[in-house]
Inverse folding.
């Protein structure tokens, strides 16, 4: 092995701003521009639409600030994988890492790549999924899939050149993304806000109904049907608010990680939650609820931009979403590889993934991730990927936050520069809410969420088959 690579180590080149931009940039992808349509169809009123986003914001911020305690205790590469290993054991940590590689991170990268290509096709039709480039049997390669894969390969290459290049790109694109979203929100309120539309949307704000696609009509819901509708609606909002945990994976490259990781988590999730709630308030100030629910291809932001800026607005918003998804995937690709690196160090992933290249980044881990995410672009549908991802993500968030309680008992001597805000009440409330969402998802979307859980469980025999490899690294 090349000695330069063997002796390489992570460089601490990221500050508080970089960490916060990674959180914000990874969280804001395509969801806020799309998923409000499905949420509106599931709950059927402006009040419930906003409540879903407020609840999602609260749940996300509580989870993030709870992770602050863990990030301060274990300020090293690997983040959540390390927390689970320390609180439980290698098996639980491996199941997370296995799910992370199989579905969570790579599935998210694929879904965001698909969203990028969807809006690229809005600007240039030949890039759409209807343009079939190659067929063999039942398999069809379309232009949208190719665009998705090309962007993932390009971003992987940029990240393989070093953390400095990727952090500059991340910060630059994220700042553009934030100001573009704020421009859309402020423009909506100042230019297109319609008092009659606003009042009409709020006139029956708390009626509970859901759109029955089979019969093409709205039906009133209550009781368990309402709870199921809320859970189904929150798939989109939770997916849109996920990926904040990525900053914990790169703790080994952050200056003063015991302070800056926790602050990045709080500032990042708070900023995004405020932007998301504001965007949805803007939507219901310029568009009747039915137009939100049935926006073409669920592109709510494009429909809102038409009201605000006219025809030029739809082109502007498509470009903005492409920038947003590109920055989102840059953050996801940068952060994800650090988990595989840490797993490989424990003998739980391909050995090559434990190597840093001459730019002091885990190059092999980046390319393994690139290959699998590209494969998922060829096989996965956007909606199904969301269901697979959200159920597993929520399960491991619950386990990780419960890990705070375990470590307080098991290792009270560990230095805790920061302690979970509102402990034990807020972390406990989070676990109860998240568990309820998981149960509701399994009941209402078993065909997809059930597969997600099955993929996670399938990691158990893989773990025991890898035992000799683990022992060889010890």
């Amino acid at each position: 092995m090349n000695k330069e690579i063997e002796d390489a180590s992570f460089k601490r080149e990221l500050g508080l701003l970089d960490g916060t931009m990674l959180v914000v940039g990874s969280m804001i992808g395509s969801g806020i521009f799309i998923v409000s349509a499905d949420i509106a169809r599931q709950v059927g009123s402006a009040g419930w639409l906003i409540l879903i986003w407020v609840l999602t914001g609260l749940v996300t911020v509580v989870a993030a600030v709870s992770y602050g305690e863990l990030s301060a205790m274990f300020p090293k590469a690997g983040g959540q994988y390390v927390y689970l290993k320390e609180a439980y054991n290698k098996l639980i940590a491996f199941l997370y890492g296995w799910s992370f590689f199989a579905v969570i991170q790579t599935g998210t990268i694929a879904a965001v790549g698909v969203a990028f290509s969807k809006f690229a096709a809005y600007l240039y039709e030949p890039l759409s999924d209807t343009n079939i480039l190659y067929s063999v049997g039942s398999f069809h390669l379309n232009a949208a899939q190719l665009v998705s894969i090309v962007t993932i390969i390009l971003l992987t290459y940029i990240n393989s050149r070093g953390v400095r290049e990727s952090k500059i790109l991340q910060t630059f694109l994220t700042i553009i993304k934030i100001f573009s979203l704020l421009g859309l929100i402020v423009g909506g309120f100042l230019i297109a806000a319609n008092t009659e539309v606003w009042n009409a949307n709020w006139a029956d704000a708390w009626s509970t109904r859901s759109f029955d696609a089979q019969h093409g009509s709205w039906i009133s819901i209550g009781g368990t049907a309402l709870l199921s509708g809320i859970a189904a609606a929150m798939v989109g909002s939770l997916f849109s608010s996920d990926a904040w945990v990525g900053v914990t994976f790169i703790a080994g490259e952050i200056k003063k990680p015991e302070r800056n990781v926790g602050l990045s988590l709080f500032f990042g999730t708070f900023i995004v939650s405020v932007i998301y709630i504001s965007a949805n308030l803007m939507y219901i100030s310029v568009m009747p609820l039915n137009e939100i629910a049935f926006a073409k291809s669920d592109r709510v932001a494009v429909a809102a931009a038409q009201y605000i800026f006219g025809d030029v607005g739809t082109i502007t918003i498509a470009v903005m979403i492409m920038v947003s998804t590109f920055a989102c995937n840059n953050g996801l690709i940068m952060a994800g590889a650090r988990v595989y690196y840490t797993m490989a160090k424990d003998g739980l992933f391909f050995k090559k993934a434990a190597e840093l290249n001459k730019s002091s980044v885990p190059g092999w881990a980046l390319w393994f991730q690139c290959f699998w995410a590209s494969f998922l672009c060829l096989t996965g549908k956007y909606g199904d990927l969301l269901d697979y991802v959200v159920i597993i993500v929520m399960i491991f968030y619950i386990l990780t936050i419960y890990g705070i309680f375990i470590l307080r008992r098991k290792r009270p001597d560990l230095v805790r520069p920061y302690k979970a805000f509102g402990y034990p009440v807020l972390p406990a409330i989070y676990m109860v809410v998240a568990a309820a969402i998981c149960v509701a998802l399994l009941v209402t979307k078993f065909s997809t969420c059930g597969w997600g859980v099955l993929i996670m469980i399938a990691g158990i025999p893989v773990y025991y088959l890898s035992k000799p490899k683990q022992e060889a690294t010890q």
Observations:
- Residues 311-345 form the longest helix (35 residues).
